[in-house]
């Protein structure tokens, strides 16, 4: 919402739309936020957190004060060695794009209600805002800000309740377009994503001009919505350079280039065509730089940082550390106290960072100072977890809490089904009205991925917390997360228990040339005994004697994997199971004569006779002998 220091809220204007305000000055915003929140739980929570930050700062300064000249020299050598190692990892070969929808939730509401376009608008509630439009941002209104405080900053602010179903529908359309440029794109949230368009650019170099021609017109969205599209005629004397060939309205004709800049421009126009919404994009050689570049020309713009080492170092040198993804208010305050305000300072003051931060943090800061980020987009196969959460007015009645939990699990279940993923660990996140946050988790032995599977587990966790709070659990935020994720298809193959039908050969599918028993009676091993039962066998209509035809499903002809006899059985394999039990009742399944092996029949009394198999004869196979050895490790539960 705003940073807190010295007992005052101070506006963080790094968010797009907040750096050019003509509504209120920064001092006015700071004064209004501080006065309006004094005495509230929100204000008290900020004071507690800031005290902890001050203690951390004092601790780090104490370390520096006690460090000797030799300590500083060793720390500097350590930082320089790490910088050399990181430089060897620099990869300039990929073209990464970060796309962020402009004020997404608010933009969707403004699109659907054009009267809102010139008014200050935010989406959320009095407890918390999800986003705001650029008109509202001029007054210091922004996401993650309590709505009642936003009203103090901008009394005319219109707060609209969120409609996540509508936002998700728009998100699906945008993601479909992303997939055309990078099938393995990664969604960072509902309104932003990372794309690696390196491969697309190789193909794009062969695109004709016609393939790269787009029109800056949203008539595709209007057509989809079945809205009337009337050609707009210019005033007398005005000239139209070009008109959209689909709707006849004035529109700019753009022939997008074959390079990255052209491809991203084309993508942004196509998003506008399909949704009537704008987006901004950043282009660079890694994800960190691409995201930073996105904010350079917001809204409805794009910026490309050339993949040249010296250009990157110059770009990053004077960049405020708060502009870097992952560096928030607390880290910024600590770094500022240590004399680090820009990314260039992270490099020149590596000795200080090496003395007071962990090796992991040091490496992260030096990567930032060099402009080295990730060039690999983790797809859903490597995804560790998926979650959803909501901020709301204070809730404390158990029925209201369970209803909110059900909404969250339904939302999460839909996302998991869409992504074809499932998991084993369910976690609930709870934020009290005192702003304390904690989580509770439970792992289950089976894979889950549907709302009706997630909800009972999450509900038990919530029930426990309500009980521990003596029915007085007062929340302002709730979230649900599923982790230990796996792809559904892979999980089916690896973890689903196999049914007997997967190990049996339908009789009608056996090749007549397959050697089960050869003509001289010598037993021959079946070459491919394990086959998936084809659905076509259900068309068989043979009914076993003594069974009511009106109650029995169509019979199935199955070749017994032990004796090769054709068995008529019902789809539940009752008769087949009985037959196999009889087959396995004796190690010697048939009388052996000089003429060969006699095929077993269910009525033969020999099935109850136990005799030892002559050593000179082949040992009768058991059903397990026909099971294919698993090539993957089986997880025991």
Short summary:
With 637 residues, the chain is an alpha+beta fold. Helices cover 37% and strands 17% of the residues. Helix 3 (69-88) packs across helix 15 (350-356).
Description:
It is built from 20 helices and 22 strands. With 637 residues, the chain is of the alpha+beta class. Among the domains are: 96-119 and 162-229 and 242-305, Reverse transcriptase/Diguanylate cyclase domain (Alpha-Beta Plaits), CATH 3.30.70; 385-495, Dna Ligase, domain 1, CATH 3.30.1490.100; 497-637, no CATH class. A five-stranded mixed β-sheet has the order 7-8-3-11-12. Strands 13, 14, 15, 16 and 17 form a five-stranded antiparallel β-sheet that branches. A hairpin with a 6-residue loop joins strand 19 (556-559) and strand 20. The longest helix has 26 residues, at 41-66.
């Amino acid at each position: 919402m705003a940073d807190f220091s010295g007992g005052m809220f101070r506006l963080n204007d790094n968010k797009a739309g907040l750096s050019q305000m003509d509504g209120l000055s920064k001092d006015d915003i700071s004064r209004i936020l501080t006065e309006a929140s004094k005495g509230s739980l929100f204000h008290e929570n900020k004071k507690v957190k800031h005290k902890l930050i001050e203690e951390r700062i004092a601790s780090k300064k104490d370390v520096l004060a006690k460090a000797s000249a030799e300590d500083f020299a060793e720390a500097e050598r350590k930082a320089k060695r790490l910088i050399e190692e990181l430089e060897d990892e620099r990869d300039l070969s990929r073209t990464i794009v970060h796309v962020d929808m402009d004020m997404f939730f608010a933009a969707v509401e403004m699109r659907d209600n054009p009267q809102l376009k010139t008014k200050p608008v935010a989406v959320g509630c009095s407890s918390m805002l999800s986003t705001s439009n650029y008109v509202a941002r001029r007054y210091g209104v922004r996401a993650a800000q309590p709505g009642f405080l936003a009203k103090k900053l901008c009394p005319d602010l219109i707060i609209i309740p969120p409609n996540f179903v509508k936002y998700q529908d728009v998100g699906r359309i945008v993601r479909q377009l992303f997939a055309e440029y990078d099938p393995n794109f990664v969604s960072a949230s509902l309104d932003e994503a990372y794309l690696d368009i390196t491969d697309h650019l190789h193909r794009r170099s062969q695109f004709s001009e016609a393939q790269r021609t787009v029109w800056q017109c949203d008539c595709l969205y209007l057509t989809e919505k079945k809205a009337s599209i009337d050609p707009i005629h210019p005033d007398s004397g005005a000239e139209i350079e070009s008109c959209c060939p689909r709707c006849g309205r004035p529109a700019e004709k753009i022939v997008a280039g074959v390079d990255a800049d052209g491809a991203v421009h084309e993508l942004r126009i196509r998003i506008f065509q399909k949704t009537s919404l704008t987006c901004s994009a950043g282009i660079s050689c890694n994800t960190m730089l691409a995201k930073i570049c996105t904010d350079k020309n917001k809204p409805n713009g794009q910026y490309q940082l050339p993949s040249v080492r010296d250009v990157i170092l110059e770009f990053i040198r004077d960049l405020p550390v708060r502009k870097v993804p992952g560096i928030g208010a607390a880290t910024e305050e600590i770094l500022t106290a240590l004399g680090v305000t820009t990314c260039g300072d992270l490099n020149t003051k590596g000795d200080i960072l090496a003395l007071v931060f962990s090796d992991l943090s040091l490496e992260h800061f030096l990567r930032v100072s060099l402009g080295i980020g990730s060039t690999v987009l983790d797809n859903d196969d490597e995804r560790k977890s998926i979650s959803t959460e909501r901020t709301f007015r204070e809730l404390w009645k158990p029925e209201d809490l369970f209803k909110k939990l059900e909404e969250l699990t339904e939302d999460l279940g839909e996302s998991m089904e869409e992504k074809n993923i499932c998991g084993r660990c369910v976690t609930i996140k709870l934020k009290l009205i005192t702003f304390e946050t904690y989580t509770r988790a439970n792992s289950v032995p089976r894979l889950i991925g549907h709302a009706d599977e997630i909800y009972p587990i999450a509900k038990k966790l919530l029930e426990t917390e309500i009980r521990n709070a003596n029915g007085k659990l007062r929340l302002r935020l709730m979230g649900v997360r599923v982790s230990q994720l796996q792809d559904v298809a892979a999980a089916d193959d690896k973890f689903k228990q196999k049914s007997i039908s997967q190990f049996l050969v339908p009789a009608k599918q056996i090749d007549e040339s397959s050697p089960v028993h050869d003509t001289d009676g010598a037993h021959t091993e079946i070459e491919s005994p394990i086959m998936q039962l084809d659905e076509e066998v259900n068309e068989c209509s043979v009914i076993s004697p003594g069974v009511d035809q009106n109650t029995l499903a169509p019979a199935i002809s199955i070749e017994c994997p032990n004796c090769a006899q054709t068995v008529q059985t019902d789809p539940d394999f009752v008769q087949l199971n009985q037959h196999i039990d009889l087959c396995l009742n004796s190690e010697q399944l048939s009388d052996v004569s000089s003429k060969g092996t006699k095929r077993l029949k269910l009525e033969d009394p020999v099935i109850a006779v136990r005799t030892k198999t002559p050593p000179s004869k082949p040992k009768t196979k058991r059903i397990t002998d026909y099971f294919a050895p698993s090539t993957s490790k089986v997880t025991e539960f």
